[in-house]
Target: Phosphocholine cytidylyltransferase family protein
Amino acid sequence: MDLSRNQFDVLTFLEKTHETKDPTQRAVARGTGLSLGTVNKTIFQLTELDFLDGLRVSQKGLKALEPYRVKRAVFIAAGFGSRMVPVTLNTPKALIRVKGVRIIDSLLDAVVAAGIEEIVLVRGYLREQFDQLLLKYPMISFFENPSYNESNNISSATCVRNLLKNAYVFEGDLLLKNPKLITKYQYTSNYLGVPVEVTDDWCFETKNGIITKIKVGGRSCYRMFGISYWNETDGAKLAEHIKQVYEMPGGKERYWDQVPLEYHIKDYKVEIRECTVDDITEINTFSELRQLDETYRV
Model:
């Protein structure tokens, strides 16, 4: 059976905390953001369904969560990173170190901690350098993008378009500061965004929590960060829609995110998943890198 959103939120909270001391209903309310009355009602429902044994998730409850389990993490990391020159002349952007740690490690560590075992990475520029990741993350499978230098990142998405069901998709150059954003379960397709008054970057317009438009620059919108999740249904649709857009005139110049959020937006209901500027940092330029790490100021 499908879980309601409240049932999902309560079950995943309890599943995540099952190894710690037994939580109270008040703790569940604080952890989920639901009212105490809603938590009480939802726990009663879940108990009636035999999904809970007290405030512990039963085996039947774990089985009910299984359709919402994240199956894989897909990393888009094939590009050159021209705005990061000179540091990217010899190193792919995702492998640049910030205070001694590779940028992509912040994402990979969060994926591993969430128990997501299948990791796929699309590489292109200086691709052999990504082999170093196997020493720490031997589970990574590489996909080669021979077109990375003549198209935008839609070409990377095309390489893995059949692997997007129940999957996170990451831009490989994001510095993740809050690993708790990456979880074992996701309720539905969503995209990370930070609410802003004004931005000149890529952003989302939303209505009732659903993304209605993607654009560059806006007011009272959500600044886009390149971490998204796609459920089984949407991931299956993406496989065909990415191919369609990539093969249309001018399609190679598009970004893959435009496929579900612009060209085929009527076919998807992608939720905004709100985060803060303290959760994640996008390093776009060498100047921004120097501000984060003084070793690049020499």
Observations:
- The CA atoms of residues 137 and 154 lie 25 Å apart.
- The mean pLDDT is 94.
